[in-house]
Structures are given as structure tokens and as C-alpha cells.
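ARCHIVE CARD
Drawer: 12
Card no.: 0347
Subject: one protein chain, sequence and derived structure
Cross-reference: see card 0346
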Amino acid sequence: GASTLEVRSSTISLEFTTAFSFARVSGQGTAVLESTNIVKAESEGKGAVGYVSQGGHLKLVTSTVLYSSARLEGGLVFSEASTVMIERSQIRKSLSKVAGGVLYCTDKSNCTIEECNLEEAFAYRDGGVAFVRDSTLNIDSSTVRYTETQVGDGGLLYCDIDANCNLTSSTIYNSNCGNRGGALYAFGANLRV
């Protein structure tokens, strides 16, 4: 059956690098991180705070993440065929050494960032805040500051093949990239601003 992980009104400080994410959710499982402060999360794999796959659900609400880093995709969260909701949260210094500084969405994932403040999101290759492929990403009523890709495309968003990316009622400051699309880059995708 489906399992549920709930973390509420807590402070989490991971002062070491792990091989896995803090919350790994798959199948019909659900993880809810509410009113939680995550001081440091580092992963040698994908998604330092969350790795969500095969229909799993992750919700990060009214929380603060001060530093997250993944050696692979998704500095904060990696989502594969799953649902991710990040709402009314503060994300600062989130990075991926590959793509998707905050979020990497693939394989028909449905991802939402709503009423959030994102600051200092970085990806070495593509999508300083998010990399989206064959999935949907909605960013609504959020403020994003200082995003960057070092050698890739889309300092803010990289919307790849069959992606639907919607950016509404949001404010973006200082988005840079090493190649194409200072803020936004779309390749075979639908991008609405």
C-alpha cells in the first residue's frame, strides 16, 4: 500500500553529504514537509531534499530551505512521473551540478511552484531554476532572484521536448546563462509567460 511521511514544524540540518535524498517517495507514496526549516541538504545523486518517482507526491509548504545541492539533476527535488508542489516557501542557494538548480521534472510529472521566493538557483548545464521534459511546470505568484547556468541554456527555465511551462504573475531579477536564453529557453516545448 501507499505510505506517508509527514514532517511538520521542524528544523532539519544535514551537515553531511548523503548518497540519497532526504525524502524518497515512489508509487502512490506521499511526503509532506510543512513549516519545516532545512538548513543544509546535499546529495551525491538526484534531488537533495526529494526524489519522487512512479506516481509519488511531494509537498513542500510554508518551509525554508537555506542550502541544497545535488551532484546530478534537481538541486532541491527530482521528479519522474510524479507530482511536486512547492508553496509559500523560501528557497535560497539551491544548485545542481547537472540541470535543474531547484527542480528537475521529467516523464509526465506535474510540478508547481506557487507564492515562493527563490534566490540564488544555479545549474552547471541547463535550467538555473528548473529543467522540464515531457512534463508540466507552473510557476505562479513567485519572486526569483539571481539564477544562472554556467555553460548551458535557460538561466531560469529550460523547457525541453513536450514540456508545458507556464510563468504567471511572477517577478524575475538577474537571470543569466552561459549559452542561449538568459532567462528562458524552449526546445520543442510550450512556454507561456
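Annotation on reverse: The chain has a mean pLDDT of 93. The longest strand covers residues 11-18.
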